[in-house]
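User: Earlier you gave me the apo prediction for this protein. Now I'd like the version with pyridoxal-5'-phosphate bound, so I can compare the two side by side. Same sequence as before, with the ligand SMILES added.
Assistant: Got it. Here's the input I'm using:
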Amino acid sequence: MSNPNWRQEFPQIKNGLVYLDSAAMSLKPQRVIDAIDHYYQDLSVNIHRGLYPISVEATDLYEQTREDVATYINSEVEEIVFTRGTTSSLNLVASSYGLANLNEGDEIIVSELEHHSSYLPWFEIAKKTKSVIKFVPLTKEGRITVDHFKTVLTEKTKIVALTYVSNVMGFITPVKEIVKLAHSIGAIAVIDGAQALPHLKVDVKELDLDFLAFSAHKMLGPTGVGILYGKKVLLDRMDPIEFGGDMNDDVTLTDATYKDTPYKFEAGTMPVAGIIAFSDTIEYFNRYSVKEIESYCMELHIYALNQLKEIEGIEIYNPNSDTAIISYNLKNVPPHDAVTYYADQNICMRAGQHCAKLVTRFLGIQSCLRVSFYLYNNKEDVDRFVSTTKEAISFFKNMGF
Ligand SMILES: Cc1ncc(COP(=O)(O)O)c(C=O)c1O
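And here is the structure of the complex with pyridoxal-5'-phosphate:
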């Protein structure tokens, strides 16, 4: 059941937008926009440096977000590093932890379901360290299973870098069991939570995660803000990869020392406004449980899927998705042509490879259409999407496609 507050809190939705691209980026509720506005109207100064009241307030709000995120995912406060996004978080782990700990012949387990952000950093580090990338064989349907994971886990595995939820297939990886197996042979798990955090409650202690990366902009928060959670023992052992202002302790002509975790990883001026406003996002998720949000999204998803399945001329690639993502094509219609038709009807959705070329290769297609639902969508959105799909099919048929 939709909560009546959800839709009205999003200014763009109030203006009649049919937005079905939340897997790429979510819209922002008014309270998050207001928090950004408050920073620029009333503060607009740097953190950790000034002793005047508005700088102290900005610093307090910035650090409050760290506490809120830590409480939300059940970590310690020092285990939360602010970054630019999931991509930066995963690059930090690969370039720092990976480079320092991988040696020739060591193995890194990834999958074909990875977003490029969860694959390319390891691909590059593997080249530098002469370590070996291994892929979990996916099931026919495209899932990562515990049994398939076991077939690639060896004594040489040092890193397991997997997506929690696929941004194309919507499948949920059995992370808890996989992390346990990884730990049993002394490997660490680096989990890409970009699509998980908007839909699932993630408890890093319960899952015993070593690293978790996610982005604020996919979970109702601002752009330019990412989180890297890392176990403190691991973060303490890691070197920063960016050096500059604020992250240092002391600098002399011949030496430099750096702050403790997490501050040593936050060099220069951070996206202060966004980080402060992310606290309001977390508050939002605390107010409306993510479980409640997800069950509503799945209600819309099933409603859409059942209708799509009835339409002739559609190929759906993930009919059993665990989250509210449908990847499909209109038969014989190039997805970028199709998406233009939807765009003309003011329906915002995605066509392409979704920064996950290994997935479209696995599916044996060039690219596909993707719709994804979130809490601000409703059944009328789905109805408009379905009727536009039918119209698009007859339009392209009449055009000789
Ligand atoms: C599964 C997954 N991982 C990583 C990313 C990268 O996130 P960002 O662009 O915020 O760094 C995305 C974004 O689409 C994603 O869906």
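For your comparison, keep in mind: The domain at 4-20+289-398 is CATH 3.90.1150.10 (Aspartate Aminotransferase, domain 1).
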